[in-house]
Amino acid sequence: MSKTAETVWSNCLSFIEDNISTQAYKTWFEPIKAVKLNENALSIQVPSKFFYEWLEEHYVKLLKVALTKELGTQAKLVYIIKMENTYGNKQPFTEKIPSSNRSQVKDQEVDVPIKNKSPELKNPFVIPGIRNVKIESQLNPNYSFDNFLEGESNRLARSAGYAVANKPGGTSFNPLLIFGGVGLGKTHLAHAIGVEIKEKYPEKTVLYISAEKFTQQYIESVKKNNRNDFIHFYQIIDVLIVDDIQLLSGKAGTQDVFFHIFNHLHQNGKQVILTSDKAPVDMIDIEQRLLSRFKWGLSAELNHPDYDTRVAIIKNKLYRDGVEMPEDIIEFLANNIKTNIRELEGAIISLIAHSSFNKREITIDLAKKIVDNYVKHTKREVSIDYIQKVVSEYFQMDVETLQSKTRKRHIVQARQLAMFFAKKFTKASLASIGSQIGQRDHATVLHACKTVDNLSSTDKQFRKYVDDLNKKLTL
Ligand code: ADP
Ligand code: MG
Question: Which of 274, 303, 341, 378 has most ligand 1 atoms within 8 Å of CB, for mutation?
Answer without folding.
Answer: 341
